[in-house]
Each structure stands twice: as C-alpha cells, then as structure tokens.
Design goal:
Layout: E1 2-4, H1 7-13, H2 30-39, E2 52-63, E3 69-74, H3 76-87, E4 90-104, E5 107-120, E6 126-140, E7 143-153, H4 172-175, E8 201-202, H5 217-226, E9 229-230, E10 237-244, E11 250-254, H6 260-271, E12 279-281, E13 284-295
Parallel strand pairs: 1-6, 2-7, 8-13
Antiparallel strand pairs: 2-3, 4-5, 5-6, 6-7, 9-13, 10-11, 10-13, 12-13
C-alpha cells in the first residue's frame, strides 16, 4: 500500500537523508561529495559524520497534518545516530534531481528536489514524501565536505509543483560518473578580485540575479493572497523585510512597523514558504533582502 507520509514519519524524514552506509571515496569535487551523500550506501564502512565539517549542521522544516511548521536542527553526530534507528525499520529509496549547481572557489551550493520512499521492512508498506534540499559544501585540505544541509518537506496545503521534478533534471547517481566536473563549474567574472563575504545581505538591485520562488507564479500568488501580502507599496498595507539566505531559506528580518497581529501573520507567511532559488552575485549564492507589504 502506498500513502502520503503521516506526521510521525515526516518527523523521521528530518533525519534520514544521509545514509548509514557510505563507501569510502575521495571527495575530490562537490559533485562527488554530493553523490556520496545521497547515493552510495551499500556498505557499513563509513559514518555520516565523515562527510560533514566539524561545525556542520542540518536543519529541517517539516509540517504536521494541520500545516503547522516545525524547525529541527541536528549536528552531524546527532543526525548519524538517528539514521540507524530509521534504517532498522525502513528501506529508503531517494531520487535526487539537481536543479542548480554553483561553485565559487572553495565553496559550492547544490539545490535539488528529492523524492523519497520509505518501505516498511515488515509490511512492505510504502510511504511517500517530496522535499526541497539545499547543500552547502566547502573544500578543506583538498576534500569537499558538507557544511550545511537544509531540508524542507512538502507543505500539506502547498505541494511542491511538478515542474520541480523535471525528467531532464540531473540525477547524480546515473549521470555524473562519466561527466567532467568542469561541465558544472560556474566561475566569477575574470576581473572580480573582491573577497567573497557570505555575511553581506544585498539589496535586490545589487545582485546579478534576484531570488526566485520555485514553481509557477500561481503557487507564489496563492501564498501571497492567503496571507494578504503584496510585493509593491499599496495603501492599507505595511512594509516588512524578509531575507533569502544563501541556502534559499526565508527569514523574517524587520517587523518594527507591524502590529502584533501582522507580525503573527508575517511569521506564518514566511514559515509556509518553500526554499527559494537564492540570489546570485558574481556566480555565488548570496543573501538578499526583499521588501513586502502586509494588510493592516
């Protein structure tokens, strides 16, 4: 039997996306490191922590059956410990599809959708879930490691659009083995000498490409309408700021002009968002702030 995931299983998904069994392999490129993390898990000879930096973290946004969001955060050790519990009860089948790959010197970002199946080892019941995931990797002593993994499960009222799972998207497990990593490289312009600072929050007019909400405009419009939010100055609406971080997560950053009721709605609005395509400046994913307006 196949069904949508229950809240209990969605909670488990917050910690299952790395594999308990990964083969030892040189992490000589971001693509290989990504490939290891998602696809190679046939032997119990490598722990999950070895694929992360010492300060790495995993964050996951999940929703209960009422659509109330929950934020969970794990260290790589905590993440790995929980995976053993899940794998004892379920076989995990994942289909990652890379939508955006960006490489900037010793930092890289891979943005993808991941279709997940959990198959009960006893009953063979299959549970389904779609997610959006953003992986930040850094190069340390010649090896690429994951510094931050951001996972967002599907919102019960706002399913991830089908176009986010295109047949032509890159399936790393099947298509990267024979590809040269330079096929994926995105490099800064030749005369760019300024040191990249991931802590700068840019204005929309300062980036090369602004943040983009995933899926169709209809999905984004429905979200705006649900929370009485518009993107241009409008009488009867109060401005507030959100920041789209380099991992695509939205964050409410300025609400000083809002009433308590407006703040509550703005918080719900931001929590209901899918992970954005982050802004781009000189081929790197960067933080960017957006001005929005909520009904008084």
């Amino acid at each position: 039997m196949t069904q949508k995931l229950t809240y209990r299983i969605i909670m488990l998904l917050a910690i299952h996306f790395a594999s308990v069994s990964l083969k030892l392999k040189a992490q000589s490129s971001p693509i290989i490191a990504y490939d290891l993390f998602y696809n190679l898990y046939e032997e119990d000879d490598q722990n999950v922590e070895s694929l992360f930096t010492k300060t790495g973290r995993i964050t996951n946004v999940i929703y209960d059956t009422l659509g109330v969001p929950q934020l969970m955060t794990f260290t790589p050790t905590e993440y790995g410990n929980q995976l053993e519990k899940i794998s004892s009860n379920y076989w995990i089948e994942r289909t990652p599809q890379v939508l955006i790959y960006r490489n900037y010197g010793s930092a890289a970002r891979i943005y993808s959708t991941v279709s997940v199946k959990l198959i009960d080892r006893n009953t063979r019941e299959t549970l389904l879930n779609n997610t959006i995931q953003s992986v930040q990797l850094v190069k340390i002593k010649g090896q690429w490691k994951i510094n931050h993994l951001s996972i967002q499960s599907e919102h019960p009222s706002y399913p991830i659009p089908e176009e986010m799972f295109p047949e032509g998207a890159l399936n790393i497990a099947e298509e990267t083995e024979n590809k040269n990593d330079t096929d994926f490289e995105v490099r800064p312009i030749p005369d760019f000498n300024t040191e990249y600072d991931p802590n700068i929050v840019y204005q929309v007019n300062e980036v090369d490409e602004p943040p983009v909400y995933p899926g169709s405009m209809a999905v984004y419009s429905d979200l705006l309408e649900t929370y009485d939010v518009v993107t241009t100055p409008t009488p009867g609406y109060t401005p507030f700021l959100i920041t789209i971080n380099e991992d695509g997560q939205a964050e409410l950053t300025y609400v000083h002009d809002l009433s308590g009721f407006q703040i509550s709605r703005a918080e719900s609005f931001v929590r209901s968002m899918m992970i954005w395509y982050p802004a781009i400046k000189y081929a790197a994913s960067v933080k960017c702030k957006l001005v929005m307006y909520i009904r008084e």
